[in-house]
TrEMBL record:
It holds the Pfam family TetR_N. Keywords: DNA-binding, Transcription, Transcription regulation. Residues 2-62 form the HTH tetR-type domain. GO terms for molecular function: DNA binding. The keyword Transcription applies. InterPro entries: Homeodomain-like_sf, HTH_TetR, Tet_transcr_reg_TetR-rel_C_sf. Residues 25-44 bind DNA. It comes from Zophobihabitans entericus. This is TetR/AcrR family transcriptional regulator.
């Protein structure tokens, strides 16, 4: 049986994603969660606390999807593509009102620059990019080139999720994965050879 806190967060997550954070009032959340307003404030003293919990939960959902995907991979290249697969998995959830794009980017659009909400969202997006860096480091020696390629892949990833949201479809994410696959094939073939040669010289 779910706790009142979980019911509130689940209800808020659905409403925030479907209708936006600013447009969703406390009464709407408590009605959907079937809890008393006092129960909400006992768990989340302010709406801002609930919003931050939503952002964290949304990112954790993606991390869990990524963990399942990456567990089935056998190479750094597959690990990178698992990031794209996890974005696609998130897009293909059975949302009540359909897929509206990245929940974190949608939330960021509702808050001013440097707000706690936007900073937390940036932290999560940076974590995704760092995951890409981690996989690329296994392929490429040059750290500057790793950072450049990770940024390029992140641009493809985030651009595709924005387009996918506008179309309410995961098709652009599927196309983005193919683009990433082609890019990795072109960019890493020579670099993998260089890295292997570098290892041999150090033996």
């Amino acid at each position: 049986m779910k706790s009142a806190k979980d019911k509130i967060l689940d209800a808020a997550s659905t409403l925030f994603y479907n209708y936006g954070i600013t447009s969703t009032g406390i009464n709407t959340i408590t009605d959907k969660a079937s809890v008393a307003k006092m129960s909400l404030y006992n768990n989340f003293p302010a709406k801002s606390d609930l919003v931050l919990a939503y952002i964290q939960a949304r990112h954790q959902e993606w991390l869990d999807l990524y963990a399942k995907r990456v567990a089935k991979t056998h190479s750094p290249q597959e690990g990178i593509l698992a990031v794209f697969d996890a974005y696609q998995d998130h897009a293909e959830f059975a949302y009540e009102n359909g897929f509206r794009g990245c929940g974190l980017l949608n939330a960021a659009a509702e808050f001013p620059a440097n707000s706690p909400e936007r900073l937390l969202i940036k932290e999560h997006k940076d974590e995704v990019e760092n995951i890409l860096v981690g996989h690329l480091t296994e392929l490429i020696v040059d750290k500057q080139k790793v950072s450049h390629l990770a940024l390029l892949l992140a641009f493809i990833l985030e651009g595709s999720i924005a387009k996918a949201g506008l179309e309410s479809s995961s098709h652009k994410l599927i196309a983005a994965k193919q683009m990433a696959k082609e890019l990795l094939t072109k960019r890493t073939t020579i670099k993998i050879t260089i890295k292997n040669d570098h290892k041999k010289k150090n033996l």
